[in-house]
Write a structure and sequence with these properties.
Length: 571
Amino acid sequence: KTKKQEEEEEEEVSDSPTEVKMSQIIMPCHCNHRQELCVGQLLKWIDITACLSAERHAMSPCVTASMDDINFEHTIRVGQVVSIKSKVNRAFNSSMEVGIQVSCEDLFSGHHWKVCHAYATFVTQRKETGERVLLKPIVPETQKEQLEYSLAAERRRVRMLHDDIIKDLLTHGCIQQGDSVEFSNAVAAEKTKVESVELVLPPHTNHQVNTFGGQIMAWMVNVATIAARYRLCQTHPTLRTIDMFTFRGPSQIGDRLLLKAIVNNAFTDSIEVGVRAEAYQDLGTNRHINSAFMIFEVLDDHGKPCTLPRLQPEPLEGERRFQEAIARKKIRLDRYIIVKHVYLSYNNVSTLKTLASRKKWRLSSEKDKVRLYSLEEKTMLSFRVDTEVDVPAHTAFSLLAELCNRPSWDTYYQKCDLIHQVDDDDFLYHVVTPSVHPKGIHQDFILLASKRRPCGSGDSYVIALRSVLLTSHPPTEGCNRGEVLCAGFIIQDTKNNIYYNQASPEVLPYISSDIAGLSTSFYNIFSSCREYLTANRLHCTSETITGENLNSSPQSNEADRLSLSLCSTQQ
């Protein structure tokens, strides 16, 4: 985001009744020996703030169910003020997503900076009768709230599949196996083991007499730091990331919490520590209540990452943890783009919805109820087209989702073939488009189409498109392989129809003359689209079609170009 965009978002005043703010001045008792705020203490404050937001909306007791990945961008020192703001983004049946923003302020310099953001899932506790508490829906007011509300459904989908994806990556060999052969200077993984027992006392619990999730995480951070610091690198590590984790069960006053930590893998400049928390009573069996994976960095005096010693994993279980750590690192580096379609699909849909939330669109021209808008942001150009059709939303969604039929109404789609159906919601297509120049060569694309039906009231139908790399489908001879970074349709039950599009060097020739008012090619295409939908409609219901943008760029030899999630492209 540009600084201007962030300032515009801050100007949006939200009167959300679920918003809770906490400010804490950092005292020495909150810090480690380096006078930096302990991450465990910050996690406790985050959990408390988010729980208050959840209970304010539910009007009943709530517990922490899970926390998404948290990346700590900066440390906080003694004397500085940390501000935590939380708000319920969306409520489902008995669970809700709470968004948390953490920032810091230096009172003497007046400098503000972002520390981290997080998404936590809270669930309501059952009533005394055993009946579930059903949550009332959230009504987003600002554009930013609408975007978070929409993306919450996508994040929920990812959470439900996260554990299965790690197993699938390893089972099908999608991740290159790490080298765990013995090295002369390697540190044995068993030497990094740490165990600690904590007795749950009243100060560690909430008003429901359950152990605070943040308190459990603080204890887990403590043993993880010991494993990373004293048992491996022998210097102070900095906690940078905590992977997504889920609380498997509650803990109460009187429980003994057994915390186990071990270094799973040591990479060139980072360490993954796995931590397991088990609860038990005097004579009871151990209950597994949580597991987490924490990533540490070791920095030198200049703030540069230090090279770490190699790790020799234990046989069997240690080897499994060693390989799974590589899979998790791959996911973190690629931001879930290339390694698994579920995460690529999430980025595909979220990028499209983010583009739809952009402000300050300028009307360029209008003809036959088709309105063309453009938006320029520094070197970025985006455009949108609004139109209306007399077709039910579900019908329009079904027709437009059949991408193979698009050549029948879109002259810029010369050919479209289905390559593979990934699942019920995601499909891979090969698309060929003609050149705008008489003697130019055609372009082709490998597109992932991600289709989403409404998850609740106020949601839209979404068809998101973006390029992917398939080794089985190299560039076609006689065609220039292009890349679509963000494209698709959004179909809404409103009276306003919007089509968004972003322009790259390949797309600009198709649209520039329309923006300048010298051509009507896009009007003709969307008029043809309306005719196509109307001719194939099942019922006559006034709906809105919001199509979002095609954004192409020349093929890059670098595979990581596919992991970009851009909301506009260079002019």
